[in-house]
Amino acid sequence: MILHKPFETLGGADHGWLKARHHFSFGGYHDPRNMNWGALRVWNDDEIAANSGFPPHPHADMEIITYVRDGAITHQDSLGNKGRTEAGDVQVMSAGSGIRHAEYNLEAETTRIFQIWIQPTRTGGAPSWGAKPFPKGDRSGKFVTLASGFENDNDALPIRTNARVLGATLKAGESVEYALDASRHAYLVPAAGRVEVNGLTLETRDGAAITDETSIRVTALEDAELVLVDAA
Predict the structure, then answer these.
(1) pLDDT cut 70: percent of the chain above it
(2) N or C end: fewer C-beta atoms under 10 angstroms in the chain?
(3) How far apart, in Å, do the first and last CA atoms of the chain sit?
(4) Per-domain residue ranges for the chain?
C-alpha cells in the first residue's frame, strides 16, 4: 500500500521568516487522522529566510534528523555543541532526557531543510548531537544510509530508534530498489525531481507513505534527489 500525499495538500504555516509544510500534524496544523506514520512523528519541509532561525527551545525523548537541501543551518545547544551543516549533509540530535538548542540560517540566502522526528525505542539517557557530510556523488544511483539505529550501519549517524534515514540521487531514467519488511513503515519524499514509486508518480516534495510492501522501486522521470525513512 502506498498513500500519496501531494505537496499542495500538506498542512502548513507562514511565519514570514519561516515557511513550513507539515507531512504530519505539527504546531497549528492538527489532523487526528494524520499524527504519524509508525514511529515517524514529524516530517517538516521548512524554508528559513536569510539571517533568521529557531531561537533556543527544549526537546526531550525524540530523535531529530535535519537534512539540508539548500543553504546551511548553524546549530547551537546547551551541551556546548556548535556546528554548520551544508546542503546535502545531515545532522542528528538525540534529545534524550532533555536538551535546549537553536537552529539559525546565518547565510545570505534562504535555507531549505527537511526536519524529521522519529520516536526513540527507549526514553531518557544523555542527549547528544552530531553532523556528517554525505556527498551527493557518493549516493548516485543507490540508497546510502545517513542515520541509523542498527549496529551494522557503521558509516551512518547514530539514532536511538529502530529506523534508518537514507538518501539517493538518480539521473533521469535511472532506477533504485529498496527491500522492505512488509510490517514496517517507509516514507519517501523527492527533495528534487519527479519520480515513479512502484508505478505511482510523485512530484517534487510530495510524500509517499508505504507499508505492506516487500520492496520499492523508484525510477527518476527527471534528475532526482530522494530521502527515505524506514521505521517500525
Answers:
(1) 100
(2) N
(3) 16
(4) 2-231
